[in-house]
Amino acid sequence: MKLTVNGEALELNAGNLADLLAKLDYEGDWLATAVNGDLVHREERAAHPLKEGDRIEILSPMQGG
Amino acid sequence: MRLELYGKTISSRLLLGTARYPSPAILAEAVRRSKTEIVTVSLRRETAGGKAGGAFFQLIRDLGVQVLPNTAGCHSAREAVLTAKMAREVFGTTWIKLEVIGHHDTLQPDVFELVEAAKILVSEGFEVFPYTTDDLVVGEKLLAAGCRVLMPWCAPIGSAMGPQNLPALKSMRAEFPDVPLIIDAGIGRPSHATAVMELGYDAVLLNTAVAIAGDPAEMAEAFAKAIEAGHIAHHAGMLEPRDLAVPSTPVIGKGVFA
């Protein structure tokens, strides 16, 4: 399936958001995720199915002012 | 003479950003030397599978300071609200430094979107620190939206120009005597920070002026002292300027030699 992850087009099969993070080797309890512009809480990722064309953002702590 | 921000009492009146330091170790040293209790952080797209963000987050946690996440780079209320929610998820705090940028060159806040975002965030339980202009009407709208702190700029972000409109900052202080007012953005040198603290501002948020200094840790200490000096001076009550000379030495009893 075609997904956009952090602005990049990917061709990858993932049943849900937790599955996607695992397949892309993302780990850590400091990651925040959104699908199509809506926050998906950490505990909801496994129950959040992904579908063709979904836009996923994966953010993490960074320096800021 | 402590400051209360959303129920948290702090002694340092310097809030420090964490961007643009030469190294994580120098950032940590600047935080320690400034004795700041609050640092701003951001959220960005992770590219290293979580490792880059994890390392930075660990550094911040080790410093034992209060985290104030920002919504830097957001240009609409919708974007800022989503970023704030993601920040709450990551950092586990309801504090948010709300930035909604409206102008490309000056990074001037879009105050219309800012007020809109503040309303939504307050209704969702956030404690909002809005980065705003020195406009009194916008200040009133933000307070009406439920903000209990205001963070006016004194010059464009990173410009180091120092306070550009002291009369406006002065009227903001007079208009909102009981609201914690934090100068955010535009400070270039310690004397700028002293000047705004002398007006009665409650704190100063800094980043570039410290991070890009020749010796960031030393500059952080200089700013901490300058901010403290301005704060104490304001409380001590300063002499107002006057047009004519006034002798400081008593005239009565002076020797007569002519």
UniProtKB/TrEMBL annotation, chain A:
Signal peptide segment: none
Pfam families in UniProt: ThiS (PF02597)
Stated name of the protein: Sulfur carrier protein ThiS
Species this chain originates from: Peteryoungia desertarenae
Lineage, opening ranks: Bacteria, Pseudomonadati, Pseudomonadota, Alphaproteobacteria, Hyphomicrobiales
From TrEMBL, chain B:
EC number: 2.8.1.10
Domain Thiazole synthase ThiG: 5-250
Described function: Catalyzes the rearrangement of 1-deoxy-D-xylulose 5-phosphate (DXP) to produce the thiazole phosphate moiety of thiamine. Sulfur is provided by the thiocarboxylate moiety of the carrier protein ThiS. In vitro, sulfur can be provided by H(2)S.
InterPro entries named in the record: Aldolase_TIM, Thiazole_synthase_ThiG, ThiG
UniProt-annotated location(s): Cytoplasm
Gene3D superfamilies xrefs: Aldolase class I
Primary location: cytoplasm
Tree of life domain: Bacteria
Active site positions, chain numbering: 97 (schiff-base intermediate with dxp)
Pathway per the UniProt entry: Cofactor biosynthesis; thiamine diphosphate biosynthesis
Record field: catalytic activity: [ThiS sulfur-carrier protein]-C-terminal-Gly-aminoethanethioate + 2-iminoacetate + 1-deoxy-D-xylulose 5-phosphate = [ThiS sulfur-carrier protein]-C-terminal Gly-Gly + 2-[(2R,5Z)-2-carboxy-4-methylthiazol-5(2H)-ylidene]ethyl phosphate + 2 H2O + H(+)
Taxonomic classification: Bacteria, Pseudomonadati, Pseudomonadota, Alphaproteobacteria, Hyphomicrobiales
Protein's organism: Peteryoungia desertarenae
Protein family per UniProt: Belongs to the ThiG family.
Residue sites binding 1-deoxy-D-xylulose 5-phosphate per the record: 158, 185-186, 207-208
One Pfam short name: ThiG
Keywords from the named record: Cytoplasm, Schiff base, Thiamine biosynthesis, Transferase
Subunit structure of this chain's protein: Homotetramer. Forms heterodimers with either ThiH or ThiS.
Record protein name field: Thiazole synthase
